[in-house]
Design goal:
Layout: H1 5-19, E1 25-33, E2 39-48, H2 49-54, H3 59-64, H4 69-77, E3 81-86, E4 90-99, H5 102-105, E5 118-122, E6 126-136, H6 149-157, E7 159-165, E8 177-178, E9 184-189, E10 194-204, H7 206-235
Parallel strand pairs: 1-7
Antiparallel strand pairs: 1-2, 2-4, 3-4, 5-6, 6-10, 7-9, 8-9
C-alpha cells in the first residue's frame, strides 16, 4: 500500500505518543516536479529541537534510540531511500524516491479521488500542473475524547507542511507561502480542520510556438513566391 500524506501523519502521532514526547514532531512533505510529469517524492520527520530543549530532553540520547526504526523499515519497503536528517530546528530522517508519474503515485489520503491528485497535462503548446485537493484532518484533533487528550496535544503543536517545487512559476494558488521566483509553494497544514490545496502552474512552449510561426511564415513566403512567379510568367 502506497504511503499517503495523512497516513504518515498518523504514524508519527502514534510514535510520539508512545515516546511521551507530545508536541515535538515536525513533518515536512515535499514533491519536486519535472516538466515531463516525473518527480521526487520525499518527507522529513523528526523531533523539534526547541521543544526538546524546553523539556530538558537530551538529543544525544534520542539519537541513540531506535524510535524511528519501524518507520524507516516501512518506508524502505515502499521503495524510499532513507538518510539521516538534521538542521537548526529538526533532527530525524528523510525518505525519498523518484517516480515516473507523480499523478499516479501521490495520494493525500487513502480515500482520495482522482480530483485530489496532482494533475499533469502536456500539449504541443502548453504544459500545466494543477491540484484541487482537500486534506481532511478533522478526525485528528481528539476533541471531546478523554483518551485522545494526548493526541490533541500532539496535533495542536505538531508542525506539518506540504511543499511543491515546480519547474516553472505558479499562477493562481492558495499556498501559505510562495518563493520569490514563484517555483516553490508551501502549505502549513492544521489538525482539526479540512485543509484546502489549490494551485495552477502553466508554461507556454515558446520553442513550439516559434516553430509554428516559422512554418506559417515560410508557407506565406512560398505562396507569395508562387503567385509572383505566376504573374511574371503571365506578363512574359
Amino acid at each position: 500500500m502506497k504511503r499517503t500524506l495523512k497516513s504518515i501523519i498518523l504514524v508519527v502521532v502514534s510514535v510520539f505518543l508512545l515516546l511521551g514526547l507530545t508536541g515535538c514532531a515536525n513533518i515536512n512533505y515535499e514533491i519536486k516536479l519535472e516538466k515531463d510529469g516525473s518527480g521526487e517524492m520525499s518527507y522529513i520527520m523528526g523531533y523539534d529541537k526547541n521543544f526538546l530543549n524546553s523539556m530538558k530532553v537530551s538529543l544525544e540520547d534520542l539519537k541513540k534510540s531506535n524510535s524511528f526504526d519501524d518507520m524507516k523499515e516501512e518506508a524502505t519497503k515502499e521503495g524510499y531511500t532513507i538518510e539521516e536528517y538534521e538542521d537548526n530546528t529538526t533532527y530525524g530522517f528523510r525518505a525519498y524516491k523518484h517516480v515516473a508519474n507523480v499523478q499516479h503515485e501521490f495520494k493525500v489520503m487513502e480515500d482520495s479521488t482522482e480530483s485530489d491528485a496532482i494533475h499533469y497535462e502536456k500539449s504541443f503548446l502548453k504544459t500545466t500542473f494543477s491540484q484541487n485537493a482537500s486534506i481532511d484532518l478533522k478526525d485528528l484533533s481528539g476533541e471531546g475524547q478523554v483518551e485522545d487528550a494526548l493526541t490533541s496535544a500532539v496535533m495542536g503543536q505538531m508542525k506539518i507542511s506540504y511543499k511543491l517545487i515546480l519547474p516553472f512559476a505558479v499562477g493562481e494558488n492558495n499556498a501559505s507561502s510562495v518563493s520569490e521566483d514563484g517555483k516553490t509553494i508551501e502549505w502549513t497544514l492544521k489538525a482539526g480542520q479540512v485543509n484546502e490545496i489549490n494551485f495552477v502552474a502553466e508554461q507556454t512552449n515558446l520553442v513550439n510556438i516559434a516553430i509554428i510561426a516559422g512554418a506559417v511564415i515560410l508557407f506565406l513566403i512560398l505562396i507569395l513566391a508562387i503567385t509572383s512567379h505566376g504573374k511574371n510568367k503571365k506578363n512574359s
